[in-house]
Amino acid sequence: xxxxxxxxxxxxxxxxxxxxxxxxxxxxxxxxxxxxxxxxxxxxxxxxxxxxxxxxxxxxxxxxxxxxxxxxxxxxxxxxxxxxxxxxxxxxxxxxxxxxxxxxxxxxxxxxxxxxxxxxxxxxxxxxxxxxxxxxxxxxxxxxxxxxxxxxxxxxxxxxxxxxxxxxxxxxxxxxxxxxxxxxxxxxxxxxxxxxxxxxxxxxxxxxxxxxxxxxxxxxxxxxxxxxxxxxxxxxxxxxxxxxxxxxxxxxxxxxxxxxxxxxxxxxxxxxxxxxxxxxxxxxxxxxxxxxxxxxxxxxxxxxxxxxxxxxxxxxxxxxxxxxxxxxxxxxxxxxxxxxxxxxxxxxxxxxxxxxxxxxxxxxxxxxxxxxxxxxxxxxxxxxxxxxxxxxxxxxxxxxxxxxxxxxxxxxxxxxxxxxxxxxxxxxxxxxxxxxxxxxxxxxxxxxxxxxxxxxxxxxxxxxxxxxxxxxxxxxxxxxxxxxxxxxxxxxxxxxxxxxxxxxxxxxxxxxxxxxxxxxxxxxxxxxxxxxxxxxxxxxxxxxxxxxxxxxxxxxxxxxxxxxxxxxxxxxxxxxxxxxxxxxxxxxxxxxxxxxxxxxxxxxxxxxxxxxxxxxxxxxxxxxxxxxxxxxxxxxxxxxxxxxxxxxxxxxxxxxxxxxxxxxxxxxxxxxxxxxxxxxxxxxxxxxxxxxxxxxxxxxxxxxxxxxxxxxxxxxxxxxxxxxxxxxxxxxxxxxxxxxxxxxxxxxxxxxxxxxxxxxxxxxxxxxxxxxxxxxxxxxxxxxxxxxxxxxxxxxxxxxxxxxxxxxxxxxxxxxxxxxxxxxxxxxxxxxxxxxxxxxxxxxxxxxxxxxxxxxxxxxxxxxxxxxxxxxxxxxxxxxxxxxxxxxxxxxxxxxxxxxxxxxxxxxxxxxxxxxxxxxxxxxxxxxxxxxxxxxxxxxxxxxxxxxxxxxxxxxxxxxxxxxxxxxxxxxxxxxxxxxxxxxxxxxxxxxxxxxxxxxxxx
Length: 1003
Ligand SMILES: Cc1cc2nc3c(=O)[nH]c(=O)nc-3n(C[C@H](O)[C@H](O)[C@H](O)COP(=O)(O)OP(=O)(O)OC[C@H]3O[C@@H](n4cnc5c(N)ncnc54)[C@H](O)[C@@H]3O)c2cc1C
Known about the structure:
By secondary structure, the chain is of the alpha/beta class. It has 35 helices and 29 strands.
């Protein structure tokens, strides 16, 4: 007898499920029906959906009825979104304001609680218990998930683990009283644990980062091992959830390492998730099957499509990378079916669980199992609480083991989960939305995804916003940072560090007119993480060397200025290529010479590469751009000429990026350069000089004269043959540079162009409704990464009274959990400060802080910091905003926490300094965000993100007031500052003839 073809069998099973599910649909008198209707209303209007979800996202932070009404009115502004008329009247100001606020606030909370209650099992253990007992009465099993993912502190991770420990005890005690239900508790003789929990590893330790897997495994393991042991002791099952792809490798490594240990190697009641929406999903499955074979004990695998599709694709598009996920829905579905088959073929090694609400996917699981002669005890079907309830009922009725994923806990940490569910429920591509809304589409929905291939929306492309149709579109793309979560890249970086160590003791010469010049006087560049290590010796220039360098640059200018822009650009692109080739060596040099941690050092190289390519492209655009009005008989053009010799004086904080940025801009513009890097970062500068020579720039176009700022820098700035000074550094030095550059010396036939970028006193304002998870992470990164030594680092946090105490607690915990250590250690997020002077200065800030206010948090320095220039990340409080700590530049891992009563007052405090460099706002109020856009006076304003880490082209960088002369590095305007503009007008009329072909019809 011929077997029924596979797809026909899937169709039969699918239609059966549909029929049963139809019968189990919610009725009009049930709450679920009304919630469904509300969801459908949102699905119809994308704008309304986005606004409504964003409002839901901030709702848990709104503490008063007044702020609920205020936010509702902002998010659902009738002028912008289509909302029922009654709503307009409710939120508009008018009589009985207080009563209406109370009513609306109350109704909104109830509505949100109902919406959350649809997907979240309960806020505490007892309510979750009630739900799971209700599920068991319907013959459905459960897995409990404690809401919360990603943590910034050890204290929060401890709390998360403690909740699981208590939960295991409570559930185990209760489970002993439950009557046996073989359908979900296993067949006689082969019982399955009744208690089942799901865990997200990012909640188990701060800094869940694959850059140092051993460290992460140690830290996560420190909480995970006791938890697994506890589960084993009480006979519970534990499933490890899979999160975003950046955590995937570490999650697999953790799982495979810990479960291979003697204590757990023979334990069966453990599982992990594989994601079919990943292009590498099948590889993960193969890897786990191979691992399971070596381990020799059965374990569980839950197959899902994946919950982070939108975020993964957006992140990839932003980074110009191919997404790690399939980009067409049918591809995920087809992959899910291939992986289903593989899992079912391996039931002797794994216990398969399939998590899907897609009836085609579920029917295919059942059909594959039938083909392989498996029983319903050989696998289980899993679904999320609140999603596809009729489907669960149908499958349970058919005798399947259905397990419901039940999240419980506070809404605040669960907001990410709730929003993912809302998106999933209203997604156009989602199965649930299509399946029950249109019964006629069922045959289509049950088709084989690898054959049917329904069309799906293309991936969003990068949009180049260019309002001038005349302007060529930019083709610039930022270079990519190294992904250190990839083991091979980590190995290469370790190799690069060894290589640079092998170079220790090298002497780096000056370069004048293409010749290397060694001098007797040298500077030892020291590793700030280990002050006894000399990274290399750098020759020091004398004023006479500077004179020779300027003369060489002046001579070379004659040729360089008339070199075609395209040829200058080619050389810059060649330089970018050289940097990419030596990327890890340069990053390693930075780690050792200035103490920048791995990722930041690598990003510094990326920025340097970006500058070269960006200015190469910009000069070609500027040259090809007719910018003036032309009339018949008259040809007008704006031509740009290079100015001459540019003195580039750069800081150590961005040792490659800023030096390369200023140099490459001058070179693109046609100017020649004399580079004077910061003493502390001269080796990196010497390497840049090497690459400039290798790239083929003619001799004299770039000259290299490291030396003491006071002597060599001043001599350069004052030099009568230097036309432009491009300086980045402290305000104190910068102000002196502007002053001496402004003097027109005898015989100097031009005014010096001064491009001067200085420091800041940068603030982050945290609103009462801010997402505190995001704010804490951003503040810690902005204030403590690279030990707070960037000009963009955060030195003040101004928080609204309402959020002050909570933010303070969270910041304190996060500060105490900072990973401080030598920059060479991959996991270090806070490395050393640059030198002893910086240590002394930091200690003075601390003294002032303690005298004028108090220290509210300070991290402890670990023993490995003894050899270097380390200072502990610190938060100061109760300080007067007029104190020098809030008014002067304060480099180092330290910030002051200030309070404000209103948002407007917070912005006023933020603005009340002499600086205007970077600033940040964390708020979910559209009105406040608008206000900050208008009133926050800084060169770079960042909303709801960290305030460091600008990207060329996307966030042109530079400040005003005493932060700088107002130019923007990495912007389309930057090059114009290195050139003189000339307007040229030609009368093209010849005896009444208009030679311009365009106007030939003019008579
Ligand atoms: C019990 C349970 C546990 C889960 N645990 C996890 C977990 O640990 N980690 C995790 O990441 N997910 C997990 N999920 C999966 C996730 O939350 C979604 O529920 C699941 O991806 C939805 O798939 P579906 O088959 O139900 O729906 P369908 O509507 O058939 O599929 C929707 C899915 O297809 C994918 N998709 C959507 N658009 C596209 C596109 N254009 N191109 C390619 N693919 C696309 C996405 O993965 C999306 O979620 C779990 C789900 C359940 C039920």
